[in-house]
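Standup notes
- HV: blocked on the assembly model, inputs below
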Amino acid sequence: MMRGNVFDIQRYSIHDGEGIRTVVFLKGCPLRCRWCANPESWEPDSSLFYVRSRCIGCGTCTAVCPDHEAEKDGDHIRLHRERGTKDYAWTQACPTGALCVKGERMDVREVMEEIRKDRVFYEHSHGGVTFSGGEPLMQKEFLLELLKTCRAEGIHTAVETTGFVNTEVLREVMPYVELFLYDVKAMDPEVHRKWTGQSNEIILENLRFLAEAGAGIMVRTPMIPGVNDREEDIRQIMEYLKACGIRNYAVLPFHQYGSGKYESAGIPYELAGLPVHEESYVQKIQGMIAAEGFQAI
Amino acid sequence: MSEKKKKLLPEGMDREKRTEFLNHAMRSVVPSICVERAGIITESYKRTEGMPFVMRRAIALKDMLEQMTIFIDEEELIVGNHGSRARAALIFPEFGTFDEKELDLMPVRKVDTLQISEEDKKYLLEEIYPYWENRCTGDRSRYYIDEKIMEVLDSPYRTFNPLSRTRSGYGHYLPNIEKVLKVGFGGIRKEAEAYLEKLDLMDPELTEKKNFYQSVVILCDGIRVFQNRFAELAEHMAEAEKDGRRKKELLLIAANCRKVPFEPADTFYEALQSYWFSILIDYCGQNGSAISGGRVDQIFYPYYRRDLDSGVLVKEEARELLEALWVKHSDIIKAGTYSSARNNGGFATTVNFVLGGVNAEGEDAVNELSYLCLEAEKSVFNSEPNTSIRLSSRNPDRFMKRVIEILVEKEGGKLPFFNDDIIIEALQEDGISLEDARNYAIVGCVEPTPYGNTMGRTNACYFNLAKCLELAMFDGVCQMSGRQMGPKTGKFEDFDSFEQVQKAYEAQVEYFVKMMVSSLNAIEKLHADYGPHIYCSMLLDGCMESGRDCTRGGAKYDFTGVQGVGVADVGDSLTAIKKLVFEEKRVSKEELLEGMRTNFEANPLLRHVLLNKAPKYGNDLEEADQMAAWAGEQYCRCVRGYTSPGGGRYRPGLFCLSSNTPLGRQVCALPSGREAGTPLGDGGVSPKHGMDLLGPTAAAKSVAKIPHRLASNGVNFNLKFMPTILKTDADRQKLVSLIRAYFSMNGMHIQFNILSPEKLVEAQKHPEKYRSLVVRVAGYSAFFVELDKDIQDEIISRTLIGA
């Protein structure tokens, strides 16, 4: 059976589509948004994740790791992520769960088992499953299998995407996706490139393609201070959405909740200390969006 | 807002102002001990020596009603005081006495602090208590409970402890006050007289019946005197009152008290006053708690509707009266021993009110008054009354949403939801008729009980399941004291299979359940002999018809409710033993026993392995959930086999309120990774705190795997929530769906604790207890305790603004 790399499955997700949802996070992403709250999703392969505050410095891992990937460092450990193979089975020995692996090779049946667990909650809330990432479309074949199975079982499907994919991929999955949660981060290609590592042309074209094809779409903009948070930034996006005939739109306020994950994943974080918006500013923008007749799902 | 114009009450005071005034006055009282009752009762008992006990109890309560100090406080609309001051706990020497040490502790102890003067202390110790030595039920219990059982109960590490029941009445039932509203105590008195007239000289139970009915007559007369004393007081106060508005109110109060509860109530206001006197008198008569009010939105509705329709009352006034009644409930407090205060805390009188549910036909019973009661609850929001929600699949989402809105605004912790559909089925399985089952209400905290006809003794005893596991692991030897407490069920070192552990555990549970039942049977006899509950007997259907007190099985339905505590701890421990010792052999038997004995002192790593390397109940994992379900079911089946002397059945519950803390002190370290002496899981069927890491849907599914209907005496499932995830209407709608889905899986109870900023600060300090708190935003979630401190602080400050 086909396998994919899943780095998290989150139940009772209530802000990722209609109703109560289970979000399946697939690993790998073509973008490198500097505000990303899930940096452990970037690498397509499984990677080490170390929650320092949970570590009791017992040294169990340093004794069992085959290639000195973990070294004792005072009361904690230091990781050498470049060492060894990508086989991280030895992390199982960690007695506290401080050290773990993000990304598990799961087959469709295993993922479906997890998805089905909250079926009763989907039914009572008109919820379902949301595939997120990373960029879930990077694991297209695996995703397609999952989507088809969900649809066959009557489970509502949503896909959260960066839109940075080949249009053919969208065309292929579209029949099995009831809702695309589609990120538009900025209208200016240079701003987009600077903050995400890629230009936005493909993304905007794909969005128009989906809209014209009649797909269910909810567009979201992670609103980042100093990047895309001016009223006119949001207005530009709304203009484009209107031109595409898209009615569902919301901003996602910037937060710092993911900052600790950078250290855990061994990735430098560039937005440390960047203050979040005042609640009143977020409300103002939300009001502006509502005034334009957009709705959130 | 033409509705605002008052029709019943004089103009000049608005609802909000009055409620705030009354609530402030009540909340600012320093709780104290009132010794007046002790004196009246002692004198009464001295006078009635030689008479049948049922009559002595009736006369004692009558004396109390005729002699106790009464007062009407400023701005009160519903009158009737419990002690000689507001929030004063009465003394019940006929049930039990406090020794000098206990009395000394009362004003200085940290929980349920009660002021008592040196003079009053001396009075109790020198003039009151000497008479009661060997006479109070507490002292007499030694002739009732078997010595072998007393040996177990003498240990501070016992597996159960029913002894507090010898020192108090049972409480924990629903008196049929609806009947009082309809026929008055005058009607009940007439009923008793009619029965007396019809008595057959050849009836073998003639004496018992005659004494019973004569006692009813005595009591009804006492009640009439009591209400008239209030009427006179109100009339006098009205005469002296300068303020015209208050004068009119006092005259309304006087008119009410002239009429109810002896005569039937005709108006909404009279109904509320009649209810209050009726429940108050019960609390003056016996020392039990959780004598509950029942379905107030149903009971008072006909009066409400009639008054509104006939134009003598407006909605806002009805709410004003309700709120006045709500506040009154904080007046009744109980004095417990230090240890019982530590177990329960917060002067938990626990008068439960229940709203919603279905009517006699099984249809949606939510009405205008249900919503009005919710608003009253919101305005007053004290620990009393303990308002609950009956939730049927027939009840509208709108009703639930309003409850959730109030929970969010008030930071939760109250207004639990009960699953009507499953409870009505479970009650029928207990032998209750469909009609009576549909009219159930909640007693105390979580105990579903038919209204007005059931002696449920719903909190007769807590049973420590975790302690039984400890004994099963050590051949019956208590690790806290080193003594042989339970039967020898084999040494863990010698067990070849996991099944042997389960067998040993089962044997320990069976052994101690038998002891618990025997001791409770003895206590039931004790109360039947020396502490008949005559007042509540006349308010429980079945007793009047049979002329038999409810302590002798006179009520239509009779149960004794006993709670198993520690399902999650036992489940998680068994799972860890099975997986880590027998299957994976990652932990050796000796290593585990050593860890349990020494509280993991020599091997702290073992504790982490146990905590993190075996699945835990609450994560929707079959392996762990089935084990907890097995433990819950085994206890319930074990209890269900027994019958009490009055012919009632034992009814198991799986809830603990706050007893998980004292019960935890009795248990050594466990294979679940729980440390010695620390609290057991905080809620009967809830996952162990901090162990449910996959969110509320996974936790709810795990909890629903325990067969709740077997535990028809009540279960509790507490869910903690970050307030940030209930911000919008859409969020709250999702919580509504969560509850509906959980109930569709036969979950019986759910209560939400919306964490206040203070609690989040506590979570920062004790992350291990709050491991399962999740911060959720779109596309992201994380455990609160694992976030950086400054981000946690930011969330806390947002919570402050948001709430």
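- HV (later): unblocked. The interface with chain B takes residues 10-16, 19-20, 23, 37-38, 51, 53-54, 56, 58, 60, 95-97, 117-118, 120-121, 123-125, 127, 132, 160, 220, 252, 255-261, 276, 279 of chain A (CB under 8 Å). The first helix of chain A runs from residue 60 to 64.
- Next: hand off to the docking folks.
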